[in-house]
Amino acid sequence: MDIRENIPLAPLTTFKVGGNARYLVEARSADDVLATVEYARSNHLPLFILGGGSNLVVADAGWPGLVLKIAIGGVSERDNADKKEFEVGAGEDWDKFVALTVARNCAGVETLSGIPGTVGGTPVQNVGAYGQEVAETITSVRVLELATMQVRDLGNSECGFAYRTSIFNSSERGRYIVLRVTFALTLGGTARIAYADLKKYFPEGSSPSLQQVRDAVREIRLSKAMLIVPNDDDCRSAGSFFKNPIVDAAKYEEVAARVNGNAPPKYPAGDGKVKLSAAWLVEQSGFQKGLSRGPVGISRRHSLAIVNRGGATAADILALKNEVQAGVRDKFGIELTPEPVFVGFE
Ligand SMILES: Cc1cc2nc3c(=O)[nH]c(=O)nc-3n(C[C@H](O)[C@H](O)[C@H](O)COP(=O)(O)OP(=O)(O)OC[C@H]3O[C@@H](n4cnc5c(N)ncnc54)[C@H](O)[C@@H]3O)c2cc1C
């Protein structure tokens, strides 16, 4: 176990803000994870689990304990009837894994191309984009349960997946460390063209290959600064900063009334509820693309991304987050929930 001291966390995140970790350990195996957890416990160090750092706002004061960076690698493949199962180490880069599945002609995660972070990070918030989410293809998640220090396999239904949530970021937060994730993808399956942007991209009646869909998604993401490009300050972010709020029919009508009855965009969310567009709410509340507040702002290409234009602090990000939330609350009476995880804040 290689324990490093006073390690800057900002470079390990896509936002590039935040202070130091008092200690940092990179775990390349389940045994490394176990040993590091034991070490943190016996030294009374608060533990934080770091994946690719793409969904985090790290406090300027940093993390007072031990940051455990999950770097468990390895992909194994096995055929099972018309499915191919991929068992993937939690530290593998997500987009590299998607590229591999497409190269193997396996459908199921192609529209999740270009999302930064690790494979182990994807079940945490049930990553989704352009018509797919990982809940549809994950069959099991191998975890270390911290209370018992036992390695367990959780089946899909035990993970409690829903829109941007799972047990890992809600009811059982802090209970498990994800070690490996198994996906079952459809060998020779067709690409999912369900999302409006993709329907617009491909002519009606066409049947693009998985690779064409992957390329299209990456191109669309690039146009919205949702693909990480080094030195592009519009993507120095944590992606979408707020979740799309789910409201009942009465609340929807109330929102519509506040924009003179013009129908706000909505998506079915089950149980008679609808999902509103957080981006639309933000824009309607007066926060436009390209807005600037010193070193932070809103992406020029995506109204839902708070960005670090260079030299920002976590406090700057928090101030703009609070300003946007207050604006949307005042205009629509809706409390926007942030999507990223806040690390090291009181
Ligand atoms: C430009 C950009 C675009 C994005 N687009 C999308 C998108 O389209 N859809 C989407 O859903 N998300 C999107 N995101 C958010 C982010 O990429 C995903 O949530 C990603 O899965 C986070 O994984 P990570 O490895 O970076 O996790 P981190 O950011 O390192 O961690 C996030 C949370 O997961 C926990 N965690 C991470 N790994 C483990 C593990 N092995 N075991 C237990 N807990 C763990 C952490 O403790 C933390 O609570 C985007 C982000 C950016 C910067």
Describe this entry's structure for a reader.
- This protein is an alpha+beta fold and 346 residues long.
- The protein folds into 3 domains: 4-70, 2-Layer Sandwich (Uridine Diphospho-n-acetylenolpyruvylglucosamine Reductase, domain 2); 75-223, Uridine Diphospho-n-acetylenolpyruvylglucosamine Reductase, domain 3 (2-Layer Sandwich), CATH 3.30.465; 233-343, UDP-N-acetylenolpyruvoylglucosamine reductase, C-terminal domain (Uridine Diphospho-n-acetylenolpyruvylglucosamine Reductase, domain 1, Alpha-Beta Complex), CATH 3.90.78.10.
- 23% of the residues lie in helices and 27% in strands.
- The chain is built from 7 helices and 20 strands.
- Strands 6, 7, 8, 11, 12 and 13 form a 6-stranded antiparallel β-sheet that branches. The chain has a 4-stranded mixed β-sheet with strand order 1-2-5-3, with helices on one face. A 3-stranded antiparallel β-sheet has the order 14-16-15.
- Strand 9 (128-129) and strand 10 (132-133) form a beta hairpin.
- It starts with a strand and ends with a strand.
- The model has no long low-confidence stretch (mean pLDDT 96).
- Flavin-adenine dinucleotide (FAD) binds next to strand 3, strand 9 and strand 13.
